[in-house]
Amino acid sequence: MNDKDQYVEIRFESGTALRLHYWRFKKVVDILSEANGKYVMVGSRINPDDETTIEGLLVKEALMRGYRYAKLRTAAFVCDLIVLCGYAQYGYTQNPETSRRVQGIKWTKRPQ
């Protein structure tokens, strides 16, 4: 964690580092809270500009903030950490545009 620059760094076995800024977690928390216990599409495999998914909303926010790597797909990593902390769970929901069953995430309990 780097509180000064407001990010969590995940270092993979390959040595690759992924920085997840705190605002990404806040954004996902807000999205899930507003969903009122319903599953929200993660969207990691969907067009990253699709604003009906967590991925799309993170990309939109990153573009507004002027990040160089705005389209870096981070939703799955952020969601995984929230699930591992016990605040949410994965499941499935239906994509309203395609009627396909897709991965979703929802709150299991509210953070304090």
If you had to describe this structure to a student in words, what would you say it looks like?
A hairpin with a 5-residue loop joins strand 1 and strand 2. The strands form two sheets. The protein has a three-stranded antiparallel sheet with strand order 3-5-4. By secondary structure, it is an alpha+beta fold. Helices cover 31% and strands 23% of the residues. It is globular. The chain has one domain.
Q: What is the terminal-to-terminal distance? A: 20 Å
Q: The biggest beta sheet, please?
A: 3 strands, antiparallel
General shape: globular
Instruction: Kindly name the structural category.
Output: alpha+beta
Number of structurally distinct domains: 1
Strand runs, count = 5
Q: How many helices in DSSP terms? A: 3
Compute the CA-based radius of gyration.
14 Å
- Helical fraction equals 25-40%
Strand content: 15-25%
Q: Which spans have pLDDT < 50 for at least 5 consecutive residues?
A: none
- Give me the side-by-side strand order of the main sheet: 3-5-4
SSE ordering: EEHEHHEE
* Mean pLDDT over the full residue set: 89
Could you name the key traits of this structure?
alpha+beta, globular
Compact summary:
With 112 residues, this protein is an alpha+beta fold. It has three helices and five strands; from the N terminus they run ββαβααββ. The strands form two sheets. It has a three-stranded antiparallel β-sheet with strand order 3-5-4. It has a two-stranded antiparallel ribbon with strand order 1-2.
